[in-house]
Structure formats: C-alpha cells, structure tokens
Amino acid sequence: MFDDTLLSAIRARFAHVEACPFTGPRIFFENAGGALTLKSVVETSARFAAIPDNQGRDNPASHALVEVIDKARADIRRFFNATGGAVVFGESGTELLFRLIRDACLGAGPGVVLGSTVEHPASRSAAARWAEVSDRKHLLVPHDDATGRVTPEAYAAALTPDTAVVTILHTSPVTGMGMDLPAIARAVRSVAPDALIIVDGIQHACHGGIDVAAAGIDGYVISPYKVFSRHGYGVAWASDRLTALAHDALIGGPAGNWELGTRDTGAYATVSDVVAYFEWLGGKVSESDDPRARIEAAGQAIHAHEAALTQAMIRGTDNLTGLADLPGVTIVGGAENTAREGLVSFWSDRLAAPEIVAALNAESIRTHTRKADHYSGNILAPLGQPHCVRVSLAHYNSLDEVRRFLSVMADILG
C-alpha cells in the first residue's frame, strides 16, 4: 500500500476527496460510477473554456491550440502504449464503442461477430445491432457466474476461422473482475488472425495497465470521467487497418480522420493532465525517468494499493469483521478472486441492497445499487438476484475509509 505521506500527496491532487459539495464530509466508494477529478483537470477546463479561438486558423492562438491537441494525441498513445493507428476523441466512451464496432462490422470480411455475456451493454448492444445490419451472426461466449469473468479458454472454445469481429470487456463494472486481455487476444489470433478486435477499457482505465501493443488488438476505448478527468468526451485508439476501413468522414477531408466537427480543445488538454498525473505517480514509486515506464509503474502501484484495500474490505482488518464473514453476505465473483480490480459487489440475505446503500448514505459513505436491469442483468439475473451493493474503490481511498465502512456495515447488518 502507499505510505501515509504519498497517499496524502495523492489525495491532495484530487477535488472533493473528503467532502461532497452538496452534503459535506463523506467517503467516496462510488468510483466505478465516475472517479474523482484531478484539480489540474478542473483548472485546465476553466482555462480553455474561456479561449474564443478555434484550431485550424492562421493565428497564434489557433496554432497554440493545435499544439495542445497534438500533445494530447501523443500523450494518449504513450498511456495506451500504442503505435500507428489513430487517436480518436468523441462524444463518450459508449459512442466510440458503437462507432468502432460499426465500422468493423461493416468493413470486415465475411464471418461472425463474437462477444461475451460479461460485457457492458455499450459493446454488447453495438455488436448486436451492427451484426444484424451487416447480416452476421452475433455469438456470445458465456462468462463464469462463480468468478464473474470470461476466460481465454471460453473464447477459444467458441472461435472459428470465420470469426470476423471480436469484442472484449477488459474489466467488469459489476463484478469488478479483469479479463486476461492479452491471452484472449492471442486465442483469437491463433484461430482467426484477421479478426478485428475491439476492447471496452472504460472500467479498467483508472486501475492502470493498458498496453494495446502487447495485446495485439485493433481498438481500445475509455471514458475519461472514469479516469480522473471530466464528462463530455470519450477517447479511443483505432489500429491502422481499422482506420483504413470506410467510416463517417467529410468528403475531401484528411485521410484517416475519425473526428467530426470541432472538438473541445479543453478535452484534449485534460487528457494530458491525466497522463501527466500517472507519470508523476510513477516517478514516486519507481526510479525510472522514462515516461512510459513511469506509467507502467504507476499502474502496478495502483493495483497493489487497491488490492490491499479490497482484501481488507473482504477479510477484515484490525478487529473489524470483513464482508466475507458478515452473516448472510455473498460476494459477487467470490471472496478469493485474484482478478478483482478495486471493486466489491455483494448482497445480503438480511437486508435488500437499496436499503444497505441508503443506510451507508446516512452514514456519509457513498456506494451504489446495481439492479438486474439492462446494465447489470447479465450478471445478476443468472445469480437470481434483483440487485446488489457495489463498493468501488480507487487508489486515493485509504485503509481508514475501509475501516469506517466495515464498522458501519457491522451495525447495519447487526
């Protein structure tokens, strides 16, 4: 875990760490619904919102904006470890998943679209729609209800040489489990080497560890508001061969351009703030001067800190009982799941999930109810549950906050 000095420095870089601007002091365990925002992002957003100039003009302000955009594209490439292809800014992560999956379905050779039942509806809905439009079968690899994830072996069992498009969820926002992306991609390439692979990295991004070059994929999408930036835009990387397919573009416009209309330069600039933060943190936990190596070190440190927090939440700490040992509590994905990334979902036989969330709110602890609806029904319905409590952590959360949560949970469940 981070020591107290470094954790204090980390928390000092984020807005509203300890208090809600509407209700006052609180513990924020709703990071999967949208992470806290870097103070630098808030400042950058305000600064660029006031600039009247647009990119693409022949004046000094416009030239400066273009430099900001170019820097952001380079920064996101470094964050993704991506070479070639295109960095794409869009309306949201969901919108970009729809666009990348649409173009893959419309442009790939003959064959099926393969996804999995663990996926968020952003990718699953896009694949279903565009498979139908492009007259393809849409097949779903079943995930394991007990572990809350889908394995490379499960994908391998469903793959055929005519698999044309593959969608993969990197981390589930309901189970909290990360998928073995490189191994799944290798399984795909071994059977269908020309398949276009699109990855939903929206939940995974704030936990670090994105490497599209090592994974050997064709598209990766994130939502910056879930990785310490703000709402209002999404970011994707698309490989050269995905970019070469036909897609919406202005007639006579630049080749390989995905973006439509003038985007907010402030959005690009805030991406650079996020990448700079990862590099700063990596410099605190490693000796490297290389920016990419620092990003990788930050991801490893984030994972270790969050793993320690979730382990304490599940198994208890000091004299506080963990969730796994509270009577009537069942943890989604199991208590000993090593694929967990900063998130614990559970239900209680004693009290409905919405009542637990309300009781935690009353004690100034922010969590969330996941319902068996179009967002989470694919996970909860097979488990026979109408809802669960989602407690989602980030690396700026502390062991003291986990202790407070466990103390309140003991009171709630009696």
From TrEMBL:
Give the SUPFAM superfamilies listed for this entry.
Answer: PLP-dependent transferases
Residue limits of the Aminotransferase class V domain?
27-253, 300-405
Q: Tell me which domain of life the UniProt entry assigns to the organism this sequence originates from.
A: Bacteria
* UniProt keyword Transferase present: yes
- Transferase as a keyword of this entry, yes or no, is yes
| Annotated keywords | Aminotransferase, Pyridoxal phosphate, Transferase
Residues in the signal sequence: none
Fetch the Gene3D superfamilies from UniProt.
Aspartate Aminotransferase, domain 1 (3.90.1150.10), Type I PLP-dependent aspartate aminotransferase-like (Major domain) (3.40.640.10)
GO molecular function annotation: transaminase activity
Q: Which Pfam families match?
A: Aminotran_5
User: What is this protein identified as?
Assistant: Aminotransferase class V-fold PLP-dependent enzyme
The record lists the organism as Sagittula salina
Q: What is the lineage of its organism?
A: Bacteria, Pseudomonadati, Pseudomonadota, Alphaproteobacteria, Rhodobacterales
